[in-house]
Design a protein that fits this description.
- The protein is mainly alpha-helical.
- 51% of the residues lie in helices and 6% in strands.
- The protein has a two-stranded antiparallel ribbon with strand order 1-2.
- Helix 5 (103-116) packs parallel to helix 7.
- The chain is elongated.
Length: 168
């Protein structure tokens, strides 16, 4: 408010209401703070924005452009790359997903396949995930790997007894 106070109202809709006037009585300055520039993470944000601009457009070039970022250390960039790939026809990238060697990229690629693939992809997706070395990946990658398994079973079907046992 122009008098320097902050006014707050509470209540209403058949409850007790009230209006409070809050003022500052300390000795420190109350001058407005200057603008803060946040250059930390700027490069990552710009990369994520560039990947997000690929969402929705179909192009084989998009797959090649986004694929390397499936293994990026930043989770938001990995997700933006995965979604860009998901917007492409599955036939263009399914085989590439199943032979990916980087466990982080493999997990993201199989998540994309689980979200967009067909039940015929189930066995190959499980086989690909089974190639990831559980001991060599970190905790967050383990969570993602478990999520990939979960999505394959939820979206691509229960699979065979053999595929279920292979996961165990």
């Amino acid at each position: 408010h122009p008098d320097g106070a902050m006014y707050v109202t509470i209540g209403g809709r058949k409850t007790q209401s009230g209006m409070y006037r809050i003022t500052y009585t300390g000795s420190e300055s109350t001058a407005p703070a200057g603008a803060v520039t946040n250059d930390e993470g700027l490069e990552y944000r710009e990369l994520r924005y560039s990947l997000e601009r690929l969402h929705g457009a179909q192009s084989r070039y998009t797959i090649d452009l986004a694929w390397p970022y499936l293994a990026h250390p930043d989770r938001a960039i990995r997700f933006a790359a995965r979604i860009a790939i998901e917007h492409q026809p599955v036939d263009w990238w399914a085989d590439r997903a199943l032979v990916e060697e980087n466990p982080v990229a493999l997990t993201q690629a199989v998540i994309a396949l689980a979200r967009n693939g067909k039940p015929e992809h189930h066995a190959n997706a499980i086989a690909a995930l089974n190639q990831a070395d559980w001991k060599s990946i970190g905790d967050s990658q383990r969570v993602d790997l478990l999520r990939a398994y979960q999505l394959v079973f939820i979206r691509l079907g229960k699979g065979t007894e053999e595929s279920r046992k292979s996961v165990l």
